[in-house]
């Protein structure tokens, strides 16, 4: 990784990475020529920056470049534009992957990073100040596993509670771009827990990030942390150190993040510094006042803490895109679910009056999306709405409206995507 604070070095590094990705992606996934040219033009523009240009504005919470064609900036976060995924392969390139930061990306050094395990769920009950430690090289020396999985914010699609259902909800007004799919490589959390001496009394594991404390309403909630039940921790959770064949980028958790397949994004703690292993259930703001469902349909203390993601679909198109009348088009999109793979997608190009079944381009797999396409020759000029409705291997289908909750989590309804035929 680049040395922190060396702007010229970082710019060169970013450009080299983009070129390496382009080369790799072009071989592996058959990126279209048009897409390659667009990206190369973007690289050329970046290369033309003066060598003294800072790679990260002093006050930017995110390290990587956020070209407006690729991202919508939302406070400390950046949402991926769906039209930017058009022509990319199954995996979201690291450069295009959305970023959700409670505060700001910390630039850490793998050489002095330690993972500290402590708590009464470990044999010998190591105290927080006398933890069992693993260095970066210790993790890299353990058996490695690779897994394709999405990270998706629990609030992805939140703005549609308001725009489609007229309901007001709190939180970042994401459209559908708070999701990305990557090929993660790392070690099983189960292997690390067993090496640290897991006690049969352990019930919860709580990873905590090394980013700054999160202050909300004038009160510090402490560092970002959320407990996982031991059953999930021992099942398919990774401590990931690579993303799409590269060391984790700074913004996505370098040097090591937790990756919890199929669960809401907050479970996948970035920049993990310690793991509390407990013989009692653990609580943090992120599984009590946040990331539960509140509202008229739920108990006062909220629903159970949210775990699995819900089901969604998106078109690889700009909101309000113009589609040429009378020309053969291929509409493309992706659908995903936390309950299984997506096995069927139905698409409407007339605001929901009629539906056709889309062709699937991926085998339905849990924990990742299924790409799909549908040919369309629009004949009537004017405004219309495109809709896509997914059905997963567990038999769940996207409903017409999503159940309201005050913080706007888990939006699952079919989204009406406005376009103009002209
Ligand atoms: N340490 C830490 N981990 C974190 C967060 C954070 O702010 N700090 N944000 C969480 C949330 S809410 C989401 S949706 C995902 C986003 O991961 P990404 O930024 O790699 O896309 O990271 C999660 N892990
Ligand atoms: Mo999130």
Polypeptide structure, described:
This protein is of the alpha+beta class and 422 residues long. It has two domains: 3-44 and 106-288, Oxidoreductase, molybdopterin-binding domain (Sulfite Oxidase, Chain A, domain 2), CATH 3.90.420.10; 311-421, Immunoglobulin-like, CATH 2.60.40. 15% of the residues lie in helices and 27% in strands. A five-stranded mixed sheet has the order 4-3-14-7-10. Helix 1 runs antiparallel to helix 2. Mean pLDDT is 90; it is low at 1-54.
Features:
disordered N terminus, 422 residues, Ig_E-set, binds the ligand Nc1nc2c(c(=O)[nH]1)N[C@H]1C(S)=C(S)[C@@H](COP(=O)(O)O)O[C@H]1N2, oxidoreductase, single chain, molybdenum, Immunoglobulin-like, 5-stranded antiparallel β-sheet, alpha+beta, binds molybdenum atom, globular
Question: How do the helices and strands line up, and which of them pair or pack?
Answer:
Elements: H1 7-29, H2 33-47, E1 71-74, E2 77-80, E3 114-118, E4 132-135, H3 136-140, E5 145-152, H4 159-165, E6 179-188, H5 189-196, E7 204-209, E8 215-216, E9 219-220, E10 228-229, H6 230-235, E11 238-243, E12 246-247, E13 257-259, E14 272-278, E15 312-315, E16 321-323, E17 329-336, E18 342-348, E19 356-357, E20 359-360, E21 370-376, E22 382-392, E23 417-421
Parallel strand pairs: 3-14, 16-23
Antiparallel strand pairs: 1-2, 3-4, 5-6, 6-11, 7-10, 7-14, 8-9, 11-12, 11-13, 15-17, 17-21, 18-19, 18-22, 20-21, 22-23
Helix pairs in contact: 1-2
Bound molecules: ligand MTE and molybdenum atom.
Molybdenum atom is lined by residues 100, 153-154, 265-266.
InterPro entries: Ig_E-set, MoCF_OxRdtse_dimer, Mopterin_OxRdtase_euk, OxRdtase_Mopterin-bd_dom, OxRdtase_Mopterin-bd_sf, TAT_signal
Organism: Streptomyces ambofaciens
Protein name: Sulfite oxidase
């Amino acid at each position: 990784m680049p040395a922190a604070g060396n702007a010229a070095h970082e710019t060169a590094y970013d450009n080299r990475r983009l070129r390496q990705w382009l080369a790799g992606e072009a071989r592996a996934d058959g990126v279209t020529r048009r897409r390659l040219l667009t990206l190369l033009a973007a690289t050329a523009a970046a290369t033309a920056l003066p060598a003294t240009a800072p790679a990260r504005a002093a006050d930017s919470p995110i390290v990587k470049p956020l070209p407006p064609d690729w991202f919508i900036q939302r406070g400390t976060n950046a949402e991926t534009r769906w039209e930017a995924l058009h022509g990319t392969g199954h995996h979201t390139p690291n450069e295009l992957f959305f970023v959700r930061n409670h505060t700001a990306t910390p630039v850490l050094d793998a050489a002095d990073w330690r993972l500290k395990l402590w708590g009464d769920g470990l044999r010998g009950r190591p105290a927080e100040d006398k933890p069992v430690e693993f260095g970066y090289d210790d993790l890299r020396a353990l058996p490695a596993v690779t897994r394709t999985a999405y990270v998706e914010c629990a609030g992805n699609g939140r703005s549609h509670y308001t725009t489609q259902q007229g309901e007001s909800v709190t939180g970042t007004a994401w459209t559908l771009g708070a999701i990305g799919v990557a090929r993660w490589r790392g070690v099983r959390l189960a292997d690390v827990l067993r090496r640290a001496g897991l006690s049969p009394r352990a019930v919860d594991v709580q990873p905590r990030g090394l980013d700054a404390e999160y202050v909300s309403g004038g009160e510090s909630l402490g560092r970002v942390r959320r407990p996982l039940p031991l059953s999930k921790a021992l099942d398919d959770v990774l401590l990931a150190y690579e993303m799409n064949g590269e060391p984790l980028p700074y913004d996505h958790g370098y040097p090591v993040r937790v990756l919890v397949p199929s669960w809401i994004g907050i479970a996948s703690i970035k920049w993990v510094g310690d793991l509390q292993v407990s013989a009692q259930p653990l609580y943090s703001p992120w599984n009590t006042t946040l990331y539960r469902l509140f509202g008229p349909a739920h108990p006062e203390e909220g629903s159970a803490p949210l775990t699995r993601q819900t089901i969604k679909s998106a078109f690889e198109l700009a909101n309000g895109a113009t589609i040429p009348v009378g020309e053969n088009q291929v509409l493309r999109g992706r659908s995903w679910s936390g309950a299984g793979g997506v096995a069927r997608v139905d698409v409407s190009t007339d605001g929901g009056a009629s539906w056709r079944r889309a062709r699937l381009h991926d085998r339905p797999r849990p924990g990742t999306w299924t790409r799909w396409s549908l040919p369309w020759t629009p004949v009537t000029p004017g405004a219309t709405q495109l809709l896509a409705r997914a059905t997963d291997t567990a038999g769940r289908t996207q409903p017409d409206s999503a159940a309201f909750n005050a913080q706007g989590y888990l939006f699952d309804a079919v989204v009406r995507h406005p376009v103009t035929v002209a």
